[in-house]
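User: My collaborator and I are trying to settle a disagreement about how two of our proteins should look. Neither of us wants to argue from intuition anymore, so we agreed to look at predicted structures for both before our next call. Could you fold the first one, then the second, and keep them clearly separated?

Assistant: That sounds like a sensible way to settle it. I'll keep them separate. The first protein:
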Amino acid sequence: MELNISTGLTFDDGDQLLISAQKPLGIILEEREDDSMITSMGGCVVAEVVSNGEADKAGVKVGDILVAVQNQDVSASSLEDVMSRIGNAPRVVNLRFWRRER
């Protein structure tokens, strides 16, 4: 018998998307390039979402900007730091994304 843990939580407040999803998440992240509209934010952006993966089911889209992992701000973190935080998180990880266009 296979035990499946629910994705758990998806909350969209209009500006940010908060998800609680089981690893593997099914997303590919890349470091953000400088952006004149958001100069204070570095961090990572979603480059690809695996169809039917946990992030896809939770509503994550290509272009979403990852701003927090486990409620810790990663908006100015390197890709290496973000991946380390996700890797060190428990099986179900809390992620917060910001979406430029809603």
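The second protein, kept apart from the first:
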Amino acid sequence: MNKLEIITKEFNRVRDIPYRIALSPNEASDDCLAKAERLLKIFRDHNYEVRYRVCKIKWSDLNLPKNVTEKKHDDNCLHVYLEAKIFGEWKIVDATWDKGLEKILPVNEWNSRLDDKLAIPCREYLTPGESLEHIKKITTKKAIELDLKENGEFYKALNGWLEKVRE
């Protein structure tokens, strides 16, 4: 198996970890950032140049049910994905949504020759440098606690809805 076949297999494995937002700072997460972190390591282990990217999104751009959207939350959010240099070009790598969600959300099939589509419609793209700075800010314990205070009930409802969709 060549490097790109290994990367594709690993992309599928990480993608198919059920998407879930952690509901406490001490809990492991399987959200866009956590999946990007896993894939970043895999790409680097196979000597690919890879970088974090962040874009600004609105939860309301997704077709979420009312029992989720009615929960208190900030509609503005950040979405984390990767870009990997493949054949001299930066390619989007976004493993956010797992296969169990393909009936309701855009699940990517990564192909090294094509860009992935982003998992969520993006409103504004940050530069690679800005992306890294934002990731550092949002991953502090204080930032996570503030986010959960503001959005915790929304995340809990979103996680529950996604679990039901997978059944």
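Some points you might bring to the call about the second protein. DSSP finds five helices and four strands in the chain. The CA atoms of residues 30 and 100 lie 14 Å apart.
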